[in-house]
Write a structure and sequence with these properties.
The complex is a heterodimer of chains A (about 280) and B (about 290). Chain A has one domain: Translation Initiation Factor IF3. Chain A is about 30% helix and about 30% strand. Chain A is built from six helices and nine strands; from the N terminus they run H-E-H-E-H-E-E-E-H-E-H-H-E-E-E. Chain A has a four-stranded mixed beta sheet with strand order 2-4-3-5. Chain A has a three-stranded antiparallel beta sheet with strand order 6-8-7. In chain A, a hairpin with a 3-residue loop joins strand 3 and strand 4. With about 290 residues, chain B is an alpha+beta fold. Chain B has one domain: 2-Layer Sandwich (Translation Initiation Factor IF3). Chain B contains five helices and eleven strands. In chain B, the strands form two sheets. Chain B has a five-stranded antiparallel beta sheet, sandwiched between helices. In chain B, strand 4 and strand 5 form a beta hairpin. Chain B starts with 20 loop residues before the first helix and ends with a strand. Classes of the chains: A alpha+beta (about 280), B alpha+beta (about 290). At the A-B interface, helix 1, strand 1, helix 2, strand 2 and helix 3 of A face helix 1, strand 4, strand 5, helix 3 and strand 8 of B. Strand 9 of chain A pairs parallel with strand 11 of chain B, so a sheet runs across the interface.
Chain lengths: ~280, ~290
């Protein structure tokens, strides 16, 4: 089984033996933490970047009791709470990254929880910087939910991430009149109050996301995620949220990527799943 | 039993392993032979664990060490049940119980690996589960002990890693050597003061005012921020210049009453040591798979 791998010409067994014999010597003294896989770390290294530290940001905002139950149009305070929690969590995330001497945060995992009385946002990611680079102004530290692999591709294509853009809106779906309820209960009919509420929330949320991208001087948003639907704790409210990474061209022009066509000789089945014991 | 000539790399004695066939194959390709599925257990009870769920006292908890922050009601005496004080504190006894349980189970697993003449343990899995009653946790670690093929070299403290298979191969190829798995826990208890209680219940701000607004709940934010900082610092203190890769940070929150809650952050990762500098890597080549 052992011996040089014919595809890479690397004798892994010899490498492992050499590594383990040199086990006690450490060529680096800087402790770093990262949630990147080894593949992602190698991707970063290939473009001249390195992980620095695992960082996180958290925020929770209170929303007034009774806010969701009755009203018309947009639920403004709920949208504000979402925007503020997102902004503060991202700000704390970037603050930790800046303190660690990083230039940005990649692979940010974003968790949002919306309850009737409060909205919380949690972010965890790995702070990164160009290898050996010094500090930058805290305001220039970016956060991106792109994976390290996608971040590498973005940089190779001549673009740069600037931060996270987010937009959210929560809208009341007006209650139908009793007459309309009785009239429609045996019919297959579109509930236009809900359709219109979703459209309204979507327009406001997408507009806000675009405006936050413009505020960051970006030219676009990539990897936009959308979460929309009813609020489980409020029968007549719908929500729409969208977020993604703001990007712009770093140089004069976009660098075209010319992918190489490859034909995999592997079976369609995954024979070498690298998952460990679970 | 006689070894088949084609499987001469594998010793004729039988072994046990928790590796999948794919990870087993990768293990052999690295020149590592599995020698046994090693395990460590530890059941921990902490009588102090109940302090975390105790009744609210008349005054903030005293005598604690670690992170602590006090919050004072701005209203003065309003009513008997009014929460005049609030406190965030690190539950160091829970963290100590956890680290002691983990360390004992880990040491027992390593003991088995050493007994088998292993140089390392790959594919480590650790679980913590409730055992028999409240406040009793079972720590269970298991992994596959490995030794160098065709070598009698042993190690007094075998290295360990959560990785196995091709992921571990890449770690070696990237110039790192596995050192150990690292796991830590931080626990912060929140006793809400009146403002936090109101805000968590949505009554700190009015929905009926002309412009209902939202307010950040500072006490909860501080508890979350501190629990993450503590768990990261605890893990970093074990690194001694090494790197922690593939970190998994999870944060759980349990609310007992409105605003009275417990935040627990858990961090796991692979401590690795760089034994040679990165070689200059070519820029990744984009490919499109034709299937």
């Amino acid at each position: 089984m052992t011996g040089p791998n014919p595809s890479t010409n690397i004798d892994v067994a010899a490498l492992v033996r050499e590594t383990l014999s040199a086990h006690t010597s450490n060529v680096s003294s800087a402790s770093t933490t990262s949630d990147l896989s080894i593949d992602e770390e190698l991707n970063l290294h290939a473009i001249g970047w390195e992980p620095v530290q695992l960082v996180s940001g958290y925020s929770v905002f209170s929303t007034p009791l009774g806010l969701w139950s009755w009203g018309q149009g947009e639920i403004v305070a709920a949208g504000e709470a979402h925007a503020s929690a997102f902004r503060n969590a991202a700000s704390r995330l970037c603050g930790e990254a800046s303190a660690a001497g990083a230039h940005g945060v990649v692979g940010v995992h974003i968790e949002r929880s919306i309850y009737s009385t409060h909205t919380e946002v949690s972010m965890i990611g790995t702070a990164v910087r160009p290898i050996g680079a010094g500090r930058v102004e805290p305001t220039r530290v970016f956060a991106s939910d792109l994976s390290a692999r996608d971040f590498s591709r973005l940089i190779i294509a001549g673009w740069e991430p600037l931060g996270l853009a987010v937009g959210a809106s929560f809208v009341y779906a007006p209650r139908r009149s009793m007459g309309a309820v009785f009239q429609q209960q045996t019919q297959n009919v579109e509930l236009t109050n809900y359709t219109e509420a979703i459209y309204s929330a979507r327009e406001l949320a997408m507009d806000r996301m675009q405006r936050s991208a413009i505020n960051l001087h970006g030219s676009g948003v990539v990897e936009v995620k959308i979460v929309e639907g009813p609020m489980t704790f409020a029968s007549h409210a719908v929500g729409f949220a969208a977020w993604g990474t703001v990007v712009r061209l770093a140089g004069a022009t976009h660098r075209l990527l010319h992918p190489t066509m490859v034909v995999s000789l592997d079976d369609a089945e995954v024979l070498f799943d690298a998952a460990n014991l679970e | 039993m006689t070894a088949h000539p084609e499987s001469a790399d594998v010793t004729p004695s039988s072994f046990t392993s928790g590796l999948s066939v794919a990870d087993f194959a990768a293990c052999l390709a690295m020149g590592l032979e599995p020698v046994g599925l090693v395990q460590g257990f530890c059941a921990m009870q902490s009588s102090n664990y109940a302090v975390g769920a105790m009744q609210r006292g008349l005054s903030p908890y005293q005598g604690q060490s670690g992170y602590v922050e006090n919050y004072q009601c701005p209203h003065g005496m309003v009513a008997g049940e009014h929460r005049m004080w609030g406190q965030n504190y690190e539950q160091t006894w829970i963290e100590q119980t956890w680290s002691q349980g983990f360390a004992s189970a880990y040491a027992r697993m390593l003991e088995e690996a050493t007994h088998l003449g292993a140089v390392g343990v790959v594919g480590v899995v650790d679980t913590q589960s409730a055992l028999v009653g409240a406040g009793v946790i079972e720590f269970h670690l298991r992994g596959t002990a490995v030794r160098l093929a065709g070598s009698s070299a042993t190690s007094a403290t075998p290295w360990t890693t959560y990785l196995a298979g091709q992921r571990l191969v890449k770690v070696f190829e990237a110039g790192f050597a596995p050192v150990s798995v690292v796991a830590s826990v931080a626990s912060v208890r929140v006793w809400a003061y009146c403002i936090t209680e109101y805000l968590m219940g949505g009554s700190g701000v009015s929905a009926w005012s002309s412009s209902p607004s939202s307010t950040e709940i500072d006490q909860i934010v501080r508890a979350h921020t501190q629990s993450r900082a503590i768990v990261r610092a605890t893990a970093q203190s074990q690194l001694r210049g090494d790197k922690l890769q593939g970190v998994q940070l999870t944060v759980a929150q349990h609310e007992y009453e409105r605003g009275d809650l417990e935040v627990q952050a858990m961090l796991r990762g692979n401590r690795v040591r760089r034994f040679r500098d990165y070689e200059a890597l070519p820029a990744p080549q984009p490919t499109v798979r034709l299937s």
